[in-house]
Amino acid sequence: MSQSYPDALAVSRKVLRALIILNLLMGFLILALLIASLVAEGPVMRGLGVRPTAGSGTLIIGMRLIMVIGICAVPFAHIVLTRLKAIVDTVSLGDPFVAENAARLQTVAWAVLGLELLHLVVGAIAAIASSEAHPLGLDWNFSVTPWLAVLLCFVLARVFEHGTRMREDLEGTV
Length: 174
Known about the structure:
Largest sheet: none
Number of strands: 0
Shape: elongated
Helix content: over 70%
Strand content: under 5%
Number of domains: 1
């Protein structure tokens, strides 16, 4: 085993810890923005580049819905990050092929699927709320890559589960 491997695990653990904190902070900030947009609509929307007019109501509602979806995405991202950190921790202990990691990967797959479904909803809201007079410049696009990641996580969960059972069977025969 090379010396860089433990360093990579230590860096991964630190990055995941930082991402967990940043995810929670982002959720709090989006919630604060949503509350501010309800309390002081005019100044907040002007700060976001929207002039509250008679025709901008749909756009403002769409923006608020997207904020709600951003808040809803925080628990999904938290699940992904905490499960990945737990997997990294088992790798550093020297035994990543355990049943818990198979379950963690399965949970990660479901959470990433949830995030991708939320992403589709954001795209739909952006399309509905945006107009020529009041465009919502999200630059939203569909990508197949995250959907492949979901599939990969489900497959890896099965591989881990099968490998764990095979190892337990092998240990039982020795």
